[in-house]
Amino acid sequence: MVKSIRYIFLVLIAAINFLYAAPEEIWILHINDIHGALAPSDAFWMNPDFPPPIGNAPAAITVINEIRETAAKKNIPVLIFDTGDWFSGAPLGDFTYGKSVIEFLNYINIDASVIGNHDFEFGLDTLQSLIRMLNAPVFCANLVKTDTDSVPDFLIPHMILEVEGVKLGLFGIITHYLTGMVSPEHMAGLSVQKHYIGAAKSVRELREQSADIIIGLTHSGFSHDQRLADSVPGIDVIIGGHSHTGVQPPKEMPRYHTIINQAYSRLTAIGVLKLQIDPQTKKIAGYDSELINLFGEEQILDKQYLSILHEWQEAVETGFDNVLGVSKRELTRSGFEESPVGNFITDAMREYAQADIAVTNSGGIRANIPAGNVTYRDLYKVEAFGNTIVMMTMTGAQIWQMLEVSVIGYHAIFQVSGLKMVYDRKAPPNQRLISVEIDGKPLDMEKEYKIVTNNFLAAGGGAYGIFRDGKNVEDTYTLIRDVMAQHLKKHSPIDYKIEGRIIAKKQ
Predict the structure, then answer these.
(1) What is the pLDDT, as a whole number, of residue 45?
(2) What domains can be seen in the chain, in order of their start residue?
């Protein structure tokens, strides 16, 4: 009798353990750096002559639905995470002020997101409006109010998400180089802390709340994710963004065994991380991962969403494919050298402003201009951030200092018009310029010159504080890409090439 009672008791215990045991698997789908790229596109970076089609959002929806259906049959919970840079960089994102992308994220029912640096492009009011629209929590633990060091009310530093008895601790981090990437007025009253400060605090507080597994959603880049993983103990998984790095297989860091994943950008792939969970400890017992490429020829496009997408496109892209002019050759870009497309852009800016010189940052030039017919869509891809023309006056001495910043090596150089400079890239920072000429004459340190630049540089964020010393500052609020279109129409066919505007001294 005693044995029978004991047997029944053990059976009951086993049944209770079964009922409350953790799921054997949790599947995490992740996307990053959408940049407004909802519409099907061509993968020109893979083959410029015969680019394979990408299905983008309509293909992503098909893949997500198929994975959810498969998981449901196996009673496996599925989560979807996004890691920022929602809208900036494509017409559907920019001309809807991000609303189309938020609607897409709601359409696929994401579970959490983190903000990215480009989500500040239209200012804090727009960012907060988008966050309110999103039916999911938005994290960032290292963006704080300058006066209190507390996370602003529109963001969440971290939280517990319970999935069938497993407590997932989620936190978010944005690049600590944010102040050099965002116009100062778009971060009024806010400052950004180092990655590890917000991460360490979040991990500590999540552990105090008995989190079983801690997942960081980061918008800081793959190299910084690796440093974070080996600097802050207790992070089980990092789902990254910002660097657009397709991480496959996952990177398991040696020090604390943090698993790092990231998908490619612009909805060209979906990351799938399958975590095996120990039902007793509720810890990660193993994992598997893959990146599913969203090739248009391999994935069925969701028809219902295609219809929604078509309505958005009709509303914002009228006239985008009209031919504006002709380029005799492809105008390529470069980060640390003079580039043909940089010469075209700065010449257009200088002509528009009737300025002595024009400068723009190479990092803001996002694509090449193709040879042959050039459309407004082509120019949009080049100048996707919606920067505006800003005019000011600067002394020759200030221009010399500004050009030293250009060649310091921390950021991509400035593309220029109206001047020629020679520099020594191996000389110490701030001592690299050898000579500067404007209109064929040596730079006069005392003279005031009229310069034209973009509103990002003019704001003087990050390393570009020298621009705040300019006088007679005037933001025309004219889009640079519209000035490019005007210049192209006037001078077509154009034939820009390397002209020796920027010369690195040969060693």
Answers:
(1) 67
(2) 20-315 (3.60.21.10), 323-504 (3.90.780.10)
